[in-house]
C-alpha cells in the first residue's frame, strides 16, 4: 500500500511536470547550478530545521542549515522537512559526510581525519551560511573538484555581506530554547575596507530530551581590504564553542520500562540536581586569509591560507573492577533473565521489571535508581574506598594511601591543528571555454588523548588496564604507560591513551567548461596524495616497544601513503529555454580515513592488513524545468562505491576490552530518484513537492578482521561477511514532502507540509552475517523450516513508515528608514507523532541468545516549534 | 519535445522500478539439518547396551522440557518417549522450552545402579560451548495421566553383559515422563514434614498410595527443594500429583514438579469397586503382599486371619483352633468410596469343629471412620454389625461346611447398604472372627472367598 501511494505521489509529480507546453519563456543561465542569494526576497527564514538541534550529533546538527540556504527545492525540503521535521535522520543520497565537499572562500574545510566537514565549527552562525553555492551531485565548480555528493561553497568575505545591522531573537523547544544573534556589516567602504562582525548565543538549561542541555556561542570577524583594483585581501575568523549534554540511544525494553520514548540514561540526580555524564564540547576557531587577484577581465587567482585549532571532547564514565554505572547495561535489564534467554530467571526478571518501572534500587547492580545514574551512590563508593598503592610512580617502596576512585568521569579529547594552503585560478579562454585549476595542500595534526574530568569523590585514579592481567604474569602489561608506571592520576592528568594522527594531503585539479548553443559541457580531473601516520606518546604495557612500527605502541607507525585521482564530466542539453537535461559522470579513488586504518589506534601502531583506497563510480541524469508555473528537477543517481574500509569499536565484556571490528573491500550501491518541484497554482499559491526515493545496498561479501585492544593476536581475520543486498541503513531511503504555500500581499506567507518517511533500516552488525554466527543453527530454505534464530540473527529490521505535518509562516515589514522586521514561525510535527528515526544492531552479540543485545533506537521529537523575530537596519 | 517527454517518463518509470526492485539479502551458509543427524529419544534409548556412551561427534535430539528439578536434571520428551537430562550446571532452561540438544560432549549413562537412563553432562552455559538451541518457550508439556498401578506394571528390566560385569537397566515407558497420578495419598501415619529440618542435602522418600492403598510408589524429594521446606505431608488427604518418573535402584519413583503440584485437598479416598478372589492367599502368605490395601488385625489375642490352600485357589480363614484364650481377629477391606448403589457379595463357609450349638462368630461389620490405624486406641473406629441385612446369612446352617464353596449356596449378597444411603465418604467392611475354646464363642474355622463390591 505504501509503495502504491509512493508511486502515485511520484506519478502526480511527474504529471504536473509534464502536463504543460514549453512555451513559457524564462531562461536561466545554468540549469543545474545553484546560485548565491543576495536579494532579500530570496531569503529563507533565518533558521534551519536542525539548527535547533533535532539531531544531537554535533557533527551533523548544522547540516540542514546549509541545505536550507540552497534555492534547490529538493534541498529545501531536505532541510526543513526531511531533517527538520521530527529529527528524521535523512541523508542526502545515503552518502556519508565525506562524500560532500565544503569550501569557504575557496578553502576546503573537510577534515583530513574524518573526511567530512565539521559543520558544528560554525554552528548557529546562520548569517555566514546564507551566502552559499550548493551543488548536488557531480558538477562543475569554480572552487573545488568536489565529491560525488556535491559541494557547498560558502562565501564569507566581509564585503559580501549585506550592509547594515541585524538583530535576531529566536525561541523554540528543541535542544536549545533561545538564541540571540547580532551581526553588523559595513559593506565596502570608500577607503577600501569592509568589516563584518557577528555573534550568536544559544542556550537551554533543559533540552527537549530529559537530562540534556545546550550552551553555544558563535562569533565571526571579517575584514576585507581592497589593496588595489586587482587585489583584495580578506581575513575571516570564526568559531562556535559549544557544550551539550548528550542523550542516549536505547533498546525498546528500556523505553517501555521507563514509559518514555525520550528516555535518556545519561543523567541522574546529584544532590538533587540533574547531572549528565556525557557532555560534549567543541571549540575549533578557524582563520582564513584570502587574496583575490583579478589578473584581468577574464582571469582571477584566489589564494588562501588557513589555520584552525581547538578541541573537541566528550566525557563519559570509566571504572575499574566494579559494576558498570550505566543503567542500561544488559545484565541490569529484565530481558537478560527473560524466558528465551539462556540466563532465564523468572524471579530476577520480575524484580528487575519492578525496579525499572518504579526507578527503585536495581537488584542486579545495587544502584539506587534503576533508570538513572546513581551519582550519590557512586560518590559514596569512592569516598569510602581507602586504599594504599605500592610502588607509586614505579619507585619501589613508595606508598600512597588515599581514596582511590574506582569510578571516574573521563574526558576524551581531540586537539586539532589544521593548516591549509590553496590556490585557484579561473580564466575564460576564447570560444567560451572556462578553465579552472587549483592546487592545495593541508596538514592535520590531531592529538587523541583523555584526561580525568572528575574523580567523583576520590583522591586519585590508578591508570591500570584491569583486563590485561589475564594476558600475562608480567605486571607491566597492566600499565597503560610503562614510562610512567603506577602513576596516581589526578584531575586534568592525561591517562589511558595519548597519540597523534598526522595527515598531509596535496591536490592538483583542473576543470574546463564549454558552452555551445544547445549544450554545456565540462570535464575535470584531480590527482591527490594523502599520507598519514600515528605517533604514540605512551608506551602501553601490552605493546611495550617505543621503536615505532607494527607491534609497538610508542613512536611512529609506518606511514600510509595513497595516491588518488578522479575524473568527471558532464553535459547539459538545453532542450529549450525552460527544459534542460543533464548527464554527469565521475570516477575517482579516495584514500581510507585514518580513523579506519589502524588496528587499535588507542593501543598500538599496527595497520589494518590490506587497507587500500576506495573507488567510486558515479553518475546522474537530471531533468530541470524552469517555467513560470513550474520549476524544479528530477534526478536519477547511481553511485557504486567499492573497496571501502569500515571500522567500529565496542566494549566486549567476554574479551574484557575494546574490540575493533574492521571490514575491508566493502562495496555498496546507492541509487535513487530526487524530485523537487514547485508548481505555481496562482499568483499567491504554490504547491511544493519533493521526493527522495533511494536504495542503499551493500553489494558484495567483504572480509572482516577483528582485533582487541589488549592482545596482539587477531580475534579473527579474513572472515567472510555475507552482506550482499543488505541495506546500509541508518536513514530513511524514502522521504516525501508535499506542501501548500500561500504568499500574502504584504510580505506574509504561510505553508503546510505533509512529510512521509519510509524504508528506514537499522544499521547492521556484520558479524551476525557470518557462517560462524549460524554455526549451531539449522535452516532448510527449500521448506522454510528451521531454527527461528536464523531469521532473528540475519534479518534486518525495517522501522515503521511514518509521517509528519509541518507549518511555516512569517511576515516581513519594510520601513521607510531602510529598516525591516521579520517574524517567522515554524511548527514541526504538529500532530506530535513520535517515531523511531534510527536504529542500530548492537555490535556485541551472543549467538546463543540474540535477544541479549537487542537493537537500539532513537525517537523523533514530537511537536517542536521555533519563533523568530529579526530587525535589520541598513 | 514530445519524444523527450515520453523518453523521460519511460526513464523515470524504469528508474523507479529499478530502484524499488526488492532484492533478497545474502545469507551465510547454514546447515539444512543438524550436523551428524537427529535421534529420537527412543532411538537414543536403544543405543544403550550396558556401557556408557560418550558422544564425540555432533548428533542432535529435539525435545521439549516437561520438568526441571531444583538441581541439574531436566526431563525432556518427544513423540517417541522421554528421558532425563543432567546439565553440567543448571542455566536458564525451564519447562515448556523446546530444545535442540547437540549431544557432542555428553554421555548416555545410567543415573545410578539400576537407575534411569539419562543424557549426562550437557553444557547449557551461556558461553560458546553451549550445546542447546532454545527453539521456543511455552510449548505444550502437560503431564500424562497414569495410575500407580499402571506405573508399577510398566516396569521391567534388562540385564546387559558388559566387560565390567552385568548391568541391570530398568525400563518403563514412563521413565523420564511427566505424569499426573490422581487419587493418591500418603500413608496415614506419614504426618511429618516433607523435608525434615536441619537435614543435610539428600534425597528423601515418602510412600504414595492410590485410593484404597492398593498400590504404592515411592516419592523422592531432594532436600534442597525449597518450595517443600516446612511443608507438612497432607496425610489425611488425597488428590493428585504431577511428577516426573524415574528409576532409582531398580524401583520406579516419582519426583514432584513442585509443591503446588501436590494437590491433596480431598478426604482420603477409597476404591470404587473392590474385587478380591484371594487366589494368592495361601498358607504362609504375607497378607500385605497378597492382599494390598486389606488389613489383617488382631483385636484380642495374637491370632490373625491366615491363608489356606494353594495358589490360585487360596482363601483366607480365621480360626481359634489353637487358641487357648479368646482371640478376636479382623480382616478389613481397603477403604471403599461410597455410592448410593453399592452392592456387596462374597462367599463364606466354615468347618464345624465342635458342637453346632456353639455360636457362629463371624460377623460382617461396616465402618465409615476406619482409617487403617484407628483400630482400638483412645478414638477407635465405630463399627456396625450388618449381618442382619443379609437375609441369607441369618441361618448359618444353610451354608455348607468343610470349606465347600458353591455359588448357589455360599454366596451372600446385599443390595445396597442402608447405613450408607446418605453417606459420601469412605467405608470399610470388616470380617470379624471371635473365637475361644469357651462355650460362648465359636470354635469353627471360617473362610471367605470371592469378595466383590460393586455399584
Task: Describe the structure using short key phrases.
heterodimer, A: 874 residues, mainly beta, Maltoporin, Chain A, 7 helices, 42 strands, 46% strand, disordered N terminus, B: 455 residues, OB fold (Dihydrolipoamide Acetyltransferase, E2P), Jelly Rolls, 5 helices, 9% helix, elongated
Folded structure, characterized:
The complex is a heterodimer of chains A (874) and B (455). Chain A has 874 residues and is mainly β. Chain A has a single domain (2-318, 411-873), classed as TonB-dependent receptor, beta-barrel domain (Maltoporin, Chain A). Chain A starts with a helix and ends with a strand. Chain B contains five helices and 30 strands. In chain B, 39% of the residues are buried. Chain B has three domains: 38-136, Nucleic acid-binding proteins (OB fold (Dihydrolipoamide Acetyltransferase, E2P), Beta Barrel); 144-267, Beta Barrel (OB fold (Dihydrolipoamide Acetyltransferase, E2P)); 274-454, Jelly Rolls. Chain B has 455 residues and is mostly beta strands. Helix content of chain B is 9%, strand content 39%. The interface between A and B is large, with 59 and 44 residues.
Amino acid at each position: 500500500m505504501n509503495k502504491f501511494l509512493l508511486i502515485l505521489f511520484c506519478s502526480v509529480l511527474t504529471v504536473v511536470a509534464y502536463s504543460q507546453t514549453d512555451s513559457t519563456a524564462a531562461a536561466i543561465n545554468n540549469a543545474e547550478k545553484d546560485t548565491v542569494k543576495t536579494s532579500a526576497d530570496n531569503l529563507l527564514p533565518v533558521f534551519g530545521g536542525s539548527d535547533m538541534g533535532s539531531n544531537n550529533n554535533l557533527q551533523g546538527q548544522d547540516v540542514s542549515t546549509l541545505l536550507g540556504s540552497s534555492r534547490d527545492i529538493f534541498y529545501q525540503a531536505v532541510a526543513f522537512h526531511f531533517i527538520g521535521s521530527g529529527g528524521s535522520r535523512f541523508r542526502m543520497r545515503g552518502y556519508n559526510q565525506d562524500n560532500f565537499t565544503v569550501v569557504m572562500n575557496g578553502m576546503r574545510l573537510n577534515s583530513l581525519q574524518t573526511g567530512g566537514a565539521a559543520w558544528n565549527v560554525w554552528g548557529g552562525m546562520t548569517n555566514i551560511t546564507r551566502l552559499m553555492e550548493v551543488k548536488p551531485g557531480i558538477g562543475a565548480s569554480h572552487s573545488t573538484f568536489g565529491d560525488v555528493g556535491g559541494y557547498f561553497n560558502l562565501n564569507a568575505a566581509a564585503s559580501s555581506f549585506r550592509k547594515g545591522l541585524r538583530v535576531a531573537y529566536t525561541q523554540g523547544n528543541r535542544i536549545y530554547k533561545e538564541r540571540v544573534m547580532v551581526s553588523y556589516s559595513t559593506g565596502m567602504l570608500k577607503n577600501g575596507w569592509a568589516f563584518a562582525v557577528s555573534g550568536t548565543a544559544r542556550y537551554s538549561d533543559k533540552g527537549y530530551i530529559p537530562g540534556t542541555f545546550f550552551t553555544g556561542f558563535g562569533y565571526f570577524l571579517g575584514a576585507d581590504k581592497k589593496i588595489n583594483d586587482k587585489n583584495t585581501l580578506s581575513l575571516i575568523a570564526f568559531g562556535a564553542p559549544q557544550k551539550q549534554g548528550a542523550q542516549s540511544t536505547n533498546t525498546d525494553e528500556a523505553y517501555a520500562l521507563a514509559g518514555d520514548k525520550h528516555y535518556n540514561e545519561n543523567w541522574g540526580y546529584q544532590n538533587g540536581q540533574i547531572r549528565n555524564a556525557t557532555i560534549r564540547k567543541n571549540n575549533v576557531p578557524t582563520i582564513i586569509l584570502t587574496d583575490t587577484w583579478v589578473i584581468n577581465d577574464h582571469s582571477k587567482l584566489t589564494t588562501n591560507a588557513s589555520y584552525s585549532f581547538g578541541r573537541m571532547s566528550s566525557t563519559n564514565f570509566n571504572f575499574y573492577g566494579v559494576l558498570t554505572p550505566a543503567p542500561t547495561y544488559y545484565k541490569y535489564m529484565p530481558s537478560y533473565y527473560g524466558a528465551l534467554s539462556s540466563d532465564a530467571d523468572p524471579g530476577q526478571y520480575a524484580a528487575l521489571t519492578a525496579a525499572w518501572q518504579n526507578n527503585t534500587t536495581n537488584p542486579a547492580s545495587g544502584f539506587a535508581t534503576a533508570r538513572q545514574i546513581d551519582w550519590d551512590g557512586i560518590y559514596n563508593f569512592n569516598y569510602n574506598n581507602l586504599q594504599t598503592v605500592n610502588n607509586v610512580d614505579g619507585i619501589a617502596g613508595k606508598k600512597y594511601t588515599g581514596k582511590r576512585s574506582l569510578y571516574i568521569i573521563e574526558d576524551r579529547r581531540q586537539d586539532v591543528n589544521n593548516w591549509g594552503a590553496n590556490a585557484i585560478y579561473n580564466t575564460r579562454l576564447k570560444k567560451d571555454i572556462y578553465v579552472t585549476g587549483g592546487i592545495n595542500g593541508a596538514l592535520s595534526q590531531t592529538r587523541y588523548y583523555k584526561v580525568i574530568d572528575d574523580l567523583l569523590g576520590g583522591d586519585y585514579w590508578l591508570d591500570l588496564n584491569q583486563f590485561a592481567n589475564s594476558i600475562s604474569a608480567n605486571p607491566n602489561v597492566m600499565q597503560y604507560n610503562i614510562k610512567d608506571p603506577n602513576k596516581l592520576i589526578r584531575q586534568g592528568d592525561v591517562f589511558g591513551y595519548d597519540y597523534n594522527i598526522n595527515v598531509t594531503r596535496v591536490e592538483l585539479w583542473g576543470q574546463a567548461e564549454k558552452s555551445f548553443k544547445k549544450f554545456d559541457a565540462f570535464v575535470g580531473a584531480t590527482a591527490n596524495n594523502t599520507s598519514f601516520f600515528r605517533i604514540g606518546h605512551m608506551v602501553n604495557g601490552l605493546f611495550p616497544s617505543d621503536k615505532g612500527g607494527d607491534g609497538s605502541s610508542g613512536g611512529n607507525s609506518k606511514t600510509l601513503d595513497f595516491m588518488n585521482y578522479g575524473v568527471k564530466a558532464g553535459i547539459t542539453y538545453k532542450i529549450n529555454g525552460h527544459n534542460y537535461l543533464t548527464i554527469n559522470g565521475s570516477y575517482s579513488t579516495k584514500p581510507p580515513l585514518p580513523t579506519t586504518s589502524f588496528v587499535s589506534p588507542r593501543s598500538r601502531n599496527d595497520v589494518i592488513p590490506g587497507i587500500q583506497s576506495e573507488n567510486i563510480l558515479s553518475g546522474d541524469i537530471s531533468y530541470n524545468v524552469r517555467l513560470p508555473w513550474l520549476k524544479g528537477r528530477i534526478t536519477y543517481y547511481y553511485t557504486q562505491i567499492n573497496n571501502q574500509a569500515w571500522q567500529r569499536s565496542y566494549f566486549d565484556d567476554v574479551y574484557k576490552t575494546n574490540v575493533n571490528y574492521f571490514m575491508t573491500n566493502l562495496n555498496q550501491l546507492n541509487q535513487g530518484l530526487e524530485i523537487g518541484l514547485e508548481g505555481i497554482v496562482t499568483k499567491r499559491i504554490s504547491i511544493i513537492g519533493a521526493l527522495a526515493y533511494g536504495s542503499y545496498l551493500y553489494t558484495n561479501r567483504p572480509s572482516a578482521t577483528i582485533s582487541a585492544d589488549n592482545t596482539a593476536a587477531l580475534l579473527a581475520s579474513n572472515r567472510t561477511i555475507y552482506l550482499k543486498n543488505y541495506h546500509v541503513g541508518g536513514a530513511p531511503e524514502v522521504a516525501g514532502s508535499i506542501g501548500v504555500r500561500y504568499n500574502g500581499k504584504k510580505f506574509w506567507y504561510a505553508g503546510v507540509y505533509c512529510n512521509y518517511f519510509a524504508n528506514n533500516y537499522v544499521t547492521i552488525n556484520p558479524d551476525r552475517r557470518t557462517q560462524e554466527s549460524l554455526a549451531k543453527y539449522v535452516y532448510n530454505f527449500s521448506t522454510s523450516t528451521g531454527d527461528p534464530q536464523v531469521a532473528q540473527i540475519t534479518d534486518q529490521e525495517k522501522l515503521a513508515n511514518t509521517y509528519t505535518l509541518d507549518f511555516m509562516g512569517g511576515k516581513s515589514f519594510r520601513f521607510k528608514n531602510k529598516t525591516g522586521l521579520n517574524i517567522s514561525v515554524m511548527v514541526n510535527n504538529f500532530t506530535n507523532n513520535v517515531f523511531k528515526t534510527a536504529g542500530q544492531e548492537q555490535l556485541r552479540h551472543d549467538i546463543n541468545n540474540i535477544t541479549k543485545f537487542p537493537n537500539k533506537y532513537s525517537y523523533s521529537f514530537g511537536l517542536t516549534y521555533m519563533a523568530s523575530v529579526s530587525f535589520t537596519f541598513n | 519535445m514530445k519524444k523527450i517527454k515520453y523518453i523521460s517518463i519511460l526513464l523515470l518509470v524504469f528508474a523507479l522500478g529499478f530502484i524499488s526492485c526488492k532484492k533478497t539479502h545474502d545469507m551465510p551458509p547454514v546447515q539444512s539439518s543438524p550436523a551428524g543427524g537427529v535421534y529420537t529419544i527412543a532411538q537414543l534409548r536403544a543405543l544403550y547396551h550396558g556401557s556408557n556412551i560418550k558422544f564425540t561427534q555432533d548428533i542432535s535430539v529435539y525435545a521439549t522440557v516437561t520438568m526441571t528439578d531444583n538441581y541439574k536434571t531436566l526431563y525432556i520428551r518427544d513423540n517417541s518417549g522421554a528421558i532425563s537430562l543432567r546439565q553440567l550446571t543448571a542455566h536458564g532452561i525451564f519447562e515448556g522450552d523446546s530444545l535442540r540438544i547437540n549431544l557432542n560432549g555428553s554421555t548416555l549413562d545410567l543415573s545410578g545402579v539400576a537407575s534411569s537412563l539419562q543424557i549426562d553432562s550437557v553444557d547449557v552455559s551461556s558461553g560458546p560451548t553451549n550445546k542447546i538451541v532454545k527453539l521456543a518457550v511455552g510449548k505444550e508439556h502437560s503431564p500424562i495421566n497414569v495410575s500407580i498401578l499402571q506405573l508399577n506394571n510398566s516396569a521391567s528390566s534388562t540385564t546387559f553383559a558388559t566387560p565390567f560385569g552385568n548391568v541391570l537397566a530398568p525400563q518403563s515407558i514412563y521413565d523420564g515422563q511427566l505424569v499426573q497420578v490422581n487419587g493418591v495419598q500418603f500413608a496415614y501415619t506419614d504426618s511429618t514434614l516433607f523435608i525434615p529440618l536441619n537435614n543435610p542435602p539428600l534425597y528423601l522418600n515418602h510412600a504414595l498410595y492410590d485410593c484404597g492403598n492398593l498400590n504404592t510408589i515411592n516419592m523422592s524429594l531432594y532436600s534442597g527443594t525449597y518450595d517443600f521446606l516446612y511443608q507438612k505431608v497432607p496425610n489425611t488427604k488425597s488428590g493428585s500429583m504431577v511428577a516426573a518418573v524415574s528409576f532409582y535402584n531398580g524401583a520406579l519413583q516419582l519426583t514432584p514438579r513442585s509443591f503446588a503440584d501436590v494437590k491433596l485437598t480431598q478426604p482420603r479416598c477409597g476404591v470404587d469397586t473392590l474385587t478380591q478372589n484371594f487366589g494368592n492367599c495361601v498358607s504362609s502368605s504375607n497378607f500385605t503382599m497378597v492382599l494390598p490395601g486389606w488389613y489383617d488385625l488382631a483385636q484380642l489375642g495374637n491370632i490373625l486371619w491366615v491363608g489356606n490352600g494353594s495358589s490360585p485357589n487360596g482363601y483366607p480363614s480365621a480360626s481359634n483352633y489353637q487358641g487357648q484364650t479368646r482371640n478376636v481377629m479382623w480382616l478389613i477391606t481397603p477403604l471403599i468410596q461410597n455410592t448410593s448403589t453399592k452392592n456387596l457379595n462374597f462367599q463364606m463357609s466354615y468347618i464345624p469343629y465342635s458342637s453346632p450349638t456353639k455360636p457362629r462368630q463371624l460377623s460382617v461389620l461396616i465402618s465409615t471412620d476406619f482409617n487403617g490405624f484407628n483400630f482400638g486406641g483412645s478414638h477407635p473406629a465405630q463399627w456396625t454389625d450388618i449381618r442382619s441385612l443379609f437375609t441369607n446369612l441369618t441361618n448359618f446352617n444353610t451354608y455348607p461346611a468343610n470349606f465347600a464353596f458353591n455359588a448357589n449356596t455360599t454366596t451372600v449378597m446385599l443390595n445396597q447398604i442402608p447405613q450408607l444411603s446418605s453417606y459420601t465418604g469412605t467405608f470399610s467392611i470388616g470380617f470379624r472372627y471371635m473365637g475361644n475354646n469357651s462355650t460362648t464363642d465359636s470354635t469353627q474355622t471360617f473362610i471367605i472367598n470371592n469378595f466383590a463390591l460393586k455399584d
